[in-house]
Amino acid sequence: MSSNTPAPKAKQVTPTDVLRYIPNKIGFSRVITMVLSLFLMRSHPTYTTIVYGISCLLDAVDGTMARKYDQCSLFGAVLDMVSDRSTTACLICYLCCAYFDRCPLLVPVLQLLNALDLSSHYMHMYATLNCTKETTHKKIEKEQWLLNLYYSRRDVLFTVCAFNELFYLALYWYSFPKYSTLGLVTLIICLPGYIFKQIANVIQMNRAAMLLATKDAKDANAKRL
Questions:
Q1: Considering its fold, how many domains does the chain have in total?
Q2: Is 84 a catalytic residue?
Q3: Is the pTM of this model over 0.90?
Q4: CA-CA-CA-CA dihedral for 9, 26, 197, 129, to nearest 10
Q5: Secondary structure (H, E, C), 197-224
Q6: Among 21, 119, 144, 210, which has the highest number of CB atoms less than 10 A from its own CB?
Q7: What is the pLDDT of residue 3?
Q8: How far is the C-alpha of 152 from the C-alpha of 143, rounded, in Å?
Q9: What CATH number does the domain containing 54 carry?
């Protein structure tokens, strides 16, 4: 072959290729397990725990697969976060029904914490992608030490998220007399990690609000020049 012959062009990545990335397939699997758990929650706590646990374990795998196969994508990042938030929100919806008569004061607390979870993560991702040069919401400046610790260290992120999900699962178990002891013990064990997660939610929502307001102020001042 002549040295002047141009090298063949690499195959162009299509949107369909991105949807078929291994970590994104894992994300789709998480959606399926979430939907399945919805039909099991009311009467089958054992099966629900298994299915919900599989979804949480898959959440720990998709990021690893994305890095291993160089298949990181914005779609994957959004799918991961949406799957996380949707799965937790669906469980909280059930808990609100389960405790509506048994503990009415718990219901608005769960609703508020669910709103905080959804709002803080949406604002955090939106603000990071639109107001900074970062392409991932997990890159946090060191000045925000708690968020930096939470997002930069995978062991911390995994542990805190595990405690957060287990806390809600413990409330779920506690609603069944057969599993009430397991639920109570798990609630006590997971409480510190759960509190840490709620504090992180408040801090990241405040950070996102400041990023967005700062950008708005900068844009408004630029228009006046």
A1: 1
A2: yes
A3: no
A4: 30
A5: HHHHHHHHHHHHHHHHHHHHHHHHHHHH
A6: 21
A7: 56
A8: 13
A9: 1.20.120
